[in-house]
């Protein structure tokens, strides 16, 4: 318990120290989630079970939110006021999940509720509030995500080369799915599929980088990383993203052709390497994975009326799968959340995500971000993702926040242009400053 108290104190000290340079706080949150898996979190907090065993990064999010609430409450109030109904829907989902878990003997996964829903949504709120003062925050977040994904890919490749987990081995050995003899690795994330998800949502963002060499290196590293995870969906998605980056990145036609040829040659060499063996075997024989998922979906469809409004509590889907004689979990967060806290509220939660993408995707000009947002909605539905403790939720809510920020910045620039046209006798720069001062009226310095 002493270690947890010390960590919480460090979180609040860090949050207060960087209250005016909040980008560092965001980098800290994303870094802890990406570099410390759930099994490694007790090394920091000292708590490995019980109601206080939330991930170390969740405690940091709560600290940053509290300091933000004290230091700049107006920014939070502005975001909540602008998206009042959206956050009301999310609050309703959290309340439904909480009540279902408290009222059902099969529930009780409150830590999962905090790590995968409450903390990521709070992080989403903090990001939007910070963007009011920082129009370039989207670019900074892109840099953070690409850097962290690149680091985890390098670690996963080293794990594959050395046949060693390198970090947190004692914790991973407690996981039923982990096989130290495997060639399927996850870097510092919780599962190989969590790394695959991170690569999938980050790959389209490479399109916005200016340097061709950096783009090529990152894409090749991501291809290598997804091969190490042996994710079939990830391999398909990353391949599609590579083509999208080549086609839609801002460069001349002849440069695109050369870029595509170089990537194709490099990919050919990768395909000839032993890296492909694992995913090739899974493509030939999925060891009954597809059949198990089909049976799980069939079971849910047959019993959907039991969970239409009220669920059985967070984490109950795993027990339901065992009771139904299924060989695996339901492997789909929409289905699993439907069992946990009701179909209605699960649809509200994932519908809110789709709403963000549909609303803000047409409004921005940030290369690759729309595809990243779409993948953040779709790819998590291919495995347990948000229904198990991992960095999945923080990753997708960060991408959603980037979508909203990029769309809002285009709207703000359009507003500035209209006001400049309305008063052409004054220069544009003073107007931009005046609008910003007006927007920040009444805020603390």
Automatic annotation (TrEMBL):
Signal peptide: none annotated. One of its GO terms (molecular function) is ligase activity. The keyword Membrane applies. Its main location: membrane. It is found in: Membrane. GO terms for cellular component: membrane. It is a multi-pass membrane protein. Pfam families: Wzy_C. Residues 217-348 form the O-antigen ligase-related domain. Keywords: Ligase, Membrane, Transmembrane, Transmembrane helix. PANTHER family: TEICHURONIC ACID BIOSYNTHESIS PROTEIN TUAE (PTHR37422:SF23). This is O-Antigen ligase.
